[in-house]
């Protein structure tokens, strides 16, 4: 008998006008010691399945049909109190963001002890001992001391270990992990996945892993269920599903995952998912406003030359200079970016890659070193007019498409603003025409200009960001994790768009990402960063085939292996 | 922590100095103090002699320094109207105001916090909606009107509670008088403290409700529920404690406000406290009392804010550990 059996589950969210069916007709089962992955893109209803099992559906959502069995005992119709007793005791849950899933005002010990004592008849000191054992078991050294600390004294990865300890502390039979590693760095992700696999086997726990990440699925699951719009489209053994997907959605989802192994010209575009935004009306770059006035001064040698760049932030201020403390975010970094190429910066969070982008654009003033753009030294620019002229030539695309657009402005105003500010067009009518053309060109259509940002999806918003960045006719584009917040299928579209634009306009790009596969597809040359230092700079293929620096090798090893994934349909791309 | 406390104390001293400067300038610019003190028939020579004796001809910095030194020893000079030292007048009045403020603060917290928690946890219930609409009245009606309304209802119509004064008081120590120990004293406290505390109560209730709604949505509350913790633990140990930081800030400021601005309530109920005295001082241009009141109020605010800042350390561990 399976630990968890879900039969024909249907979850509904009654709305004002109609009932939204979040999950429809889903049948799954998980055995003890096995891992079942539920994969799908945002809005597929995968988290809702987990919440329905543990009985934590957001009001007014409710189970409208089907049955949920735990060890053959039906649990979906239990009264509230009995359901609550199952949580933690029989079913443990792990959440996505370890930074926010622990109460900041309670020590780790008190959170563990209270959970243990809620479920098991143990004395305070027995519960404490058990808590220490658990903390040790999830791989936190010095457990008896660390346990007295507060969550903010742990790093992200360590906190996720605490969360896992909390989920396991009453020895549940089933653990539901909702995007357990999405908020973590690759190296931490690998460790946490390893830990989960180990615990699952050792304690003979059934595990339901909900994720959007094919790498995670390939790495730890035995079975996988693919969800699309609340429905189960494919379900089977992981090797089977990833290796020989039958459903067209699964096929397109797999093909959209960036390949870490070889470089392909373009990302396979998934038409199954969302209408790929093809330009409604192609503009002829050669004659259009966008293509004109690109006669920037010629440079001999690289376009951007960064030399011994240093940046430190004051972490403790004091009136005595000797007592001040600094954090060195960027240490003596030097590299060049050639005209027309895409230079990739890769590294884990806190490695200083975004700081470099901010230094180049002038959002921060460096504490040392030089940034040469063409023939101009950026760090010594004083004259406001010169600064503006430089800023016009470089534009930035940010990670979070939800917070990087002003929610109170219409899309057309957002894009028109830089054109008007830099006085790049002669009349309002011309500005309007340019905005319409830009929107067409990034695949949104001119009609989108009348709307507000909140009416668009994440991918569409990122297209707006791109159109805004193009509106100053830049020469140099900095993309800071432009697709990290997006689903894979949307990511493929956005990256293709960036590639097209680069070719058409001859843009030079600095592309920052933590995702090695994306970097491989996008960049000509790559710099690897760690702790503010540049470890290695190499040509793309050379870096992946023959990494020189030990850290680069380590990063490459940590990449989830995607060999399982079927690439048969790549030929159609 | 010690560094933080010292920094705050230094800031507080700067604030006090600025207030002292304001209180000091009052003497110089709100009318001529000599004119207030002497009669019409005093000769110009006598006036000049008095002026000289009081040190009013000294350079301004010297006078200001003298003012601060005296103020630090609670010496604010002599009241123009009562011909008594201002500090003595205040000593007589402070117990009444502090007791009234204490009673209304307790009323605001004891009633406001549970109402706020209830309204935060049971957002849709009719009782929460009733709390919210009633609290709107508390916020929108002016204090004096509520006071008069209460007097009309409970003193005039029902004749349950006295409409003015402190009732019988008991002397404790050399200068403290309390109304807490007699029945008539307690009865006299009820109406004024409700009048004074109603606004703070609604404020605290709404604040706690809003904070609760915010905290309930966070991941750690969801995770606490997913671990099967009983609702009591989730709501009180995890949710309530996390709402406290902003609530304490506001409560501290409001406590200062209660003490400092009891003026209107004291007038309506003829409560023999500082506020009533201040109002009389304004009518009679009694500058020493006005400036002492100003200093005292500022001192109370600064002290309460300091205590609130220190309280943060006990509630939020993230502040306790110095950042690396």
TrEMBL record, chain A:
<dbReference type="GO" id="GO:0015833">
    <property type="term" value="P:peptide transport"/>
</dbReference>
<dbReference type="Pfam" id="PF08352">
    <property type="entry name" value="oligo_HPY"/>
</dbReference>
<dbReference type="GO" id="GO:0016887">
    <property type="term" value="F:ATP hydrolysis activity"/>
</dbReference>
<dbReference type="GO" id="GO:0055085">
    <property type="term" value="P:transmembrane transport"/>
</dbReference>
<keyword id="KW-0813">Transport</keyword>
<feature type="domain" description="ABC transporter">
    <location>
        <begin position="4"/>
        <end position="254"/>
    </location>
</feature>
<dbReference type="InterPro" id="IPR050319">
    <property type="entry name" value="ABC_transp_ATP-bind"/>
</dbReference>
<dbReference type="GO" id="GO:0005524">
    <property type="term" value="F:ATP binding"/>
</dbReference>
<dbReference type="InterPro" id="IPR017871">
    <property type="entry name" value="ABC_transporter-like_CS"/>
</dbReference>
<dbReference type="Pfam" id="PF00005">
    <property type="entry name" value="ABC_tran"/>
</dbReference>
<dbReference type="InterPro" id="IPR003439">
    <property type="entry name" value="ABC_transporter-like_ATP-bd"/>
</dbReference>
<keyword id="KW-0067">ATP-binding</keyword>
<keyword id="KW-0547">Nucleotide-binding</keyword>
<dbReference type="GO" id="GO:0005886">
    <property type="term" value="C:plasma membrane"/>
</dbReference>
<dbReference type="InterPro" id="IPR027417">
    <property type="entry name" value="P-loop_NTPase"/>
</dbReference>
<dbReference type="InterPro" id="IPR013563">
    <property type="entry name" value="Oligopep_ABC_C"/>
</dbReference>
<protein>
    <submittedName>
        <fullName>Probable ABC transporter, ATP-binding protein</fullName>
    </submittedName>
</protein>
<feature type="domain" description="ABC transporter">
    <location>
        <begin position="304"/>
        <end position="556"/>
    </location>
</feature>
<dbReference type="InterPro" id="IPR003593">
    <property type="entry name" value="AAA+_ATPase"/>
</dbReference>
<comment type="similarity">
    <text>Belongs to the ABC transporter superfamily.</text>
</comment>
Automatic annotation (TrEMBL), chain B:
<dbReference type="InterPro" id="IPR045621">
    <property type="entry name" value="BPD_transp_1_N"/>
</dbReference>
<feature type="transmembrane region" description="Helical">
    <location>
        <begin position="130"/>
        <end position="155"/>
    </location>
</feature>
<dbReference type="GO" id="GO:0055085">
    <property type="term" value="P:transmembrane transport"/>
</dbReference>
<dbReference type="InterPro" id="IPR035906">
    <property type="entry name" value="MetI-like_sf"/>
</dbReference>
<comment type="similarity">
    <text>Belongs to the binding-protein-dependent transport system permease family.</text>
</comment>
<dbReference type="Pfam" id="PF19300">
    <property type="entry name" value="BPD_transp_1_N"/>
</dbReference>
<keyword id="KW-0812">Transmembrane</keyword>
<keyword id="KW-0472">Membrane</keyword>
<keyword id="KW-1133">Transmembrane helix</keyword>
<dbReference type="InterPro" id="IPR000515">
    <property type="entry name" value="MetI-like"/>
</dbReference>
<dbReference type="Pfam" id="PF00528">
    <property type="entry name" value="BPD_transp_1"/>
</dbReference>
<protein>
    <submittedName>
        <fullName>ABC transporter permease protein</fullName>
    </submittedName>
</protein>
<feature type="transmembrane region" description="Helical">
    <location>
        <begin position="289"/>
        <end position="315"/>
    </location>
</feature>
<feature type="transmembrane region" description="Helical">
    <location>
        <begin position="244"/>
        <end position="269"/>
    </location>
</feature>
<feature type="transmembrane region" description="Helical">
    <location>
        <begin position="12"/>
        <end position="30"/>
    </location>
</feature>
<keyword id="KW-1003">Cell membrane</keyword>
<feature type="domain" description="ABC transmembrane type-1">
    <location>
        <begin position="94"/>
        <end position="312"/>
    </location>
</feature>
<keyword id="KW-0813">Transport</keyword>
<dbReference type="GO" id="GO:0005886">
    <property type="term" value="C:plasma membrane"/>
</dbReference>
<feature type="transmembrane region" description="Helical">
    <location>
        <begin position="100"/>
        <end position="118"/>
    </location>
</feature>
<feature type="transmembrane region" description="Helical">
    <location>
        <begin position="175"/>
        <end position="199"/>
    </location>
</feature>
